[in-house]
Amino acid sequence: MTFVQNLTFFVLAAFVGYEIITKIPTNLHTPLMSGANAISGITLIGSVVVAGSGSTTLATGLGFLAVVMATVNVVGGYLVTNSMLDQFRSGDDRRRERGGGD
Amino acid sequence: MAILGGLPPSVLAFVYLVAGVLFIQGLRDMTHPRTAPRGNLISAGGMALAVGVTVLVTDILSPVLLFAGLLVGAAIGVWLAVTVETTEMPQLVGLFNGFGGGASALVAGAELIDMFGTGSFQTGVTATAALAGIIGSVTFWGSLVAAGKLHGVVNDSAVRYDGEQAVKALFLAVALLAGLHLVARPNLLGAVPLAGWVPSYWVLVAAASILGVLLVVPIGGADMPVVIALLNSYSGLAAATTGFVLDNSVLIIAGTLVGASGLILTVIMCESMNRSLANVFFGGLGEADGDDGEEMADIYEGNITTTSSEEVEMILDVADRVVIVPGYGMAVAQAQHAVAELAELLEGEGVDVEFGIHPVAGRMPGHMNVLLAEADVPYDKLRDLEEINPTFSQTDVVIVIGANDVVNPSANTADSGPIAGMPVLNVGEARTVIVNKRSLSPGFSGVPNPLFAQDNTNMLFGDGKETMQELVNLYKENH
Predict the structure, then answer these.
(1) How much is the pLDDT for A102?
(2) Cβ–Cβ under 8 Å, residues B137 and B235
(3) Min Cα separation B244/chain A (Å)
(4) pLDDT digits (tens, 9 = 90+) for A65-97
(5) Within a domain: A10
(6) Are B231 and B96 contacting, i.e. CB atoms less than 8 angstroms apart?
(7) How many structural domains does chain A have?
(8) Residues B424, B411 contacting (CB under 8 angstroms)
(9) Is the minimum CB–CB distance between A19 and chain B shorter than 8 Å?
(10) What does the pLDDT read at residue B30?
């Protein structure tokens, strides 16, 4: 792929991101941040490529470290986001939950 | 060894496209609390797909090492996510952020070293690798310092010193020069020992690392929402630039989405403080003019009304509408459960209770919302600044707990000063204001708060959790 093709992805993704994220309510800003954070762990793909195919020991070692860090980011990020979102309830949800327990 | 090594590149590119679409759909679902958990799962599915196909397709020379890395990382991630307390969430988010950025910087370095082995550097690759190295290293070290400040292991006040900007500029210049060297003459040092390490890249990483530390150390705790949001954006940009290095579409798409998200949050946080990003990073907030102490004494002298839990309980008894305004002090005192219980008791007696949340209350974007959600307060009770402000004049009682600058009316009237022009919650318009604080000490801005001296304000001094618990107990006894 050429640099310009990559740049095309970059610019279009920036616009899509802007459109979606401005619609996210303040309530969800923390989960948004930690969820987005987990997405930034996509760099794990790069880590996998260099760790797996590194032709020198040094490159492989750096790749290994990168894999560990990126995996922490991905796994931890999605898990905390999930547990945070689980706690968000509307008034109706709460009444229903309490009502079910009676 | 590559299990699907024979797969044509177009199929791989297609799978990456699907993953990109899943990330976008995941974010779209984040626009409502009801659909957000599903969005998170969709996004995680996209990640699993992208990583899985990469593992299967790539010609992996050392599968054991790779899977060991994945296992170790996953174990650490699970352990951190499971053991975290809600109050520690800001530093954990900061820490995860740093790991993403650090990984990007390492990947770019490893790719350069591999290229040195093949003997051919392409300008496009060296340039983006230099960018990924700078952004990734700044993100990693900046996030570590931010997380350290939030966790209380690094001094969280604003550390300023003479020539600060010059020192930062110096390290940025070193990083940029090393980057230029990498782009212009990557093989120049070919004859020296360790040339295979691509030394100019590591000079760049070292300089950018120091820069990352220097950038965040001078920033005070209350400005952390901006810092965390900006570093979030950087970790995305680091991933996107790594995508340019590796020529990988899904890295670019996902990284850019995160970059946009972090940037928008950063802008929202800055606007909520009426400050520019440059001011947060380079301006000295809270530099006292010297007469602040005197001014404070003048404002507060003879004008402070203190109250007791018993009195507050009686005031609440006759209230029809109560608004609770939490601040970072509520998080510090871990008073959210007691506050939630009080709100529920009041509601049980037919009182209309809402929460007024300022965008920069707390230490990360949406901090108060997460704390209150943990304490089981329904999200439809939480109102943001624009929604709640017009309602204060019809409100009987406002309870301010652990907030200061975000309810300071002088922001509306002052022409200059750290908080002039900052949008604030106009709680003073309510009939009665109860302020729960430990003392009259100023907020992060260092500015005295005339609200405390207002006629309709009663100061309820004490620890947030204890005081709220006391109120809850009194209210229970009498109803």
Answers:
(1) 44
(2) no
(3) 7
(4) 999 999 999 999 999 999 999 888 887 887 787
(5) no
(6) no
(7) 1
(8) yes
(9) no
(10) 92
Containing domain of residue A85, as a range? Answer: 29-101
Upper half-sphere CA count for residue B469 (Cβ side, 13 Å)? 9
Report pTM: 0.87
Instruction: Give the pair of three-digit tokens for residue B103.
Output: 């990984």
Q: Which residues in chain A have their CB less than 8 angstroms from residue B110's CB? A: 50-51, 54, 58-60, 62-63, 66
3-class SS shares of chain B: helix, strand, coil, % to 5: 65, 5, 25
> What's the residue count for chain A?
102
Distance CA B265, CA B262 (A): 5
What dihedral angle (degrees, nearest 10) is formed by the CA atoms of B290, B296, B299, B301? Answer: -120
A7 within domain boundaries: no
- Kindly give the parts of chain B with pLDDT less than 50: 1, 285-291
Place of tokens 């990583």: B51
Q: ipTM value of the model? A: 0.92
Q: What are phi and psi of B434, to 5 degrees?
A: -105, 125
- Residue with tokens 């209309």, as numbered in its chain: B352
> Distance between CA atoms of B331 and B333, rounded to whole angstroms?
5
End-to-end Cα spacing for chain A: 62
Q: How far is C-alpha B36 from the chain's CA centre?
A: 19
